[in-house]
Design goal:
Blueprint (H helix, E strand, L loop, with lengths): L11 E8 L2 E7 L1 H9 L1 H15 L3 H8 L9 H7 L6 H5 L1 H12 L11 H24 L3 H16 L1
Antiparallel strand pairs: 1-2
Helix pairs in contact: 1-2, 7-8
């Protein structure tokens, strides 16, 4: 995560709860955290900067009232619980989730490890799709010898 004040890595994460449905999150690096915690004038300035960065005010109120048409979950409920209600929420709250995911994970799409078995299955499925496409091309080109080899290869992959 990056600091809200500068682009250094955030080491301190502050959540200030103002009411049941209203809170502020602040992510600061060590230097900015010292200024925020020990300089009272800086503290109110940081809160103002955070409110500006989070789009507090009318935009936040409208965002908090927006809800998923499938499950009825409001974005403020997600912010409070940290859990989405259904798969459609990812699409409904996409604009708000993308910066949040990028801040937390550094990316907006998964590029990590997969289970050991899955790549073989995925690889086999991918190879089958490629072979079927090549088979169609061979048939269209009337290359029946190549089509027969591809058919046999597809059959062995499907049986394994």
């Amino acid at each position: 995560m990056k600091c809200n004040k500068c682009q250094n890595p955030a080491t301190l994460h502050i959540t200030e709860v103002h009411s049941e449905n209203q809170f502020e999150e602040l992510h600061l690096c060590e230097q900015c955290a010292n200024k925020y915690l020990y300089d009272p004038q800086q503290k109110s300035g940081a809160k103002g900067a955070l409110a500006e960065a989070l789009g507090e005010g009318d935009e936040t109120a409208a965002l908090n009232q927006r809800e998923c048409p499938q499950c009825g979950m409001k974005f403020v409920e997600f912010r409070n619980s940290g859990r989405l209600g259904c798969p459609h929420d990812y699409h409904e709250f996409k604009e708000e989730l993308l910066p949040l995911l990028e801040n937390i994970h550094g990316e907006t799409r998964h590029v990590g490890k997969s289970p050991r078995r899955l790549p073989q299955n995925k690889q086999t499925q991918s190879e089958l799709m490629q072979l079927r496409n090549r088979l169609k091309e061979a048939i269209n080109l009337e290359d029946y010898e190549q089509a027969a080899r591809l058919r046999d290869r597809i059959k062995t992959l499907e049986e394994s």
